[in-house]
Amino acid sequence: MTASKSRITLTAIGPEQAVLRCPHCNSDILFASAHGIRTLEGYWIDDGDTLQLADALDDDGDGLSFYGCLGAGTQPCCGREYGVIGVCMIMGDVTDDFEQVYFRKCGDMGQSTNFVARRGKRTWLVERYETNSGPMLEHTFPPFFVSESMSGENGVSSCAAPKVFATAAAFVADQWPELVALLKEQMVVAAR
To answer: Per-residue pLDDT tens for 152-163?
Structure first.
């Protein structure tokens, strides 16, 4: 079985551990514990923009609500820019209020349960939030090297870096069937 078609496994995070590192110098960027996340210094994402996933996906997201974001950060260790892909997913339709709180982080999301996800050799952070609509998973894929600035005169945007945004959307589309399968597994866990 190839890594691109392997199943995603989740491992609960216990004691705090570094889960995301700088793609340039390998310095720690983000630490996670079972229910918390912290950085060494302030914000680790400077700005971001919506990642247009619907165009990149083969299916219509039947019964699924999701939001993707491509963020840009600059690590103090080396001063170089990196990109970060985030994807929030939940089964069912959601309200505008839900989108504001859980997809755009404009409100109290409550406490998450954190996991390290693994698919083949790739690992990333998954935060699981218990909502009135069921479990919502937020995937944060490791920072990656960007060869062009993602910022324009209005900040980070797909207009300023169309190739980076297209590559990020294609990356998510490649992971999509397994991300959906994982969310469905988590729905079963929640029903127990």
So the answer is: 888 999 988 999
What's the gap between Cα 188 and its chain centre?
22
Q: Where are the alpha helices (DSSP H) in 4-159?
A: 96-98
What's the one-letter identity of residue 82? Y
Q: Which residues have CB under 8 Å from 11's CB, separation 6+? A: 115, 116, 118
H helix count then E strand count, the chain: 2, 13
In order of 19, 100, 139, 189, the CA distances from 14 in angstroms are 12, 29, 18, 19
Query: Torsions phi, psi of 150, nearest 5?
Result: -90, 0
What residues of the chain score a pLDDT lower than 50? 1-4
What's the distance, CA 93 to chain centroid? Answer: 20
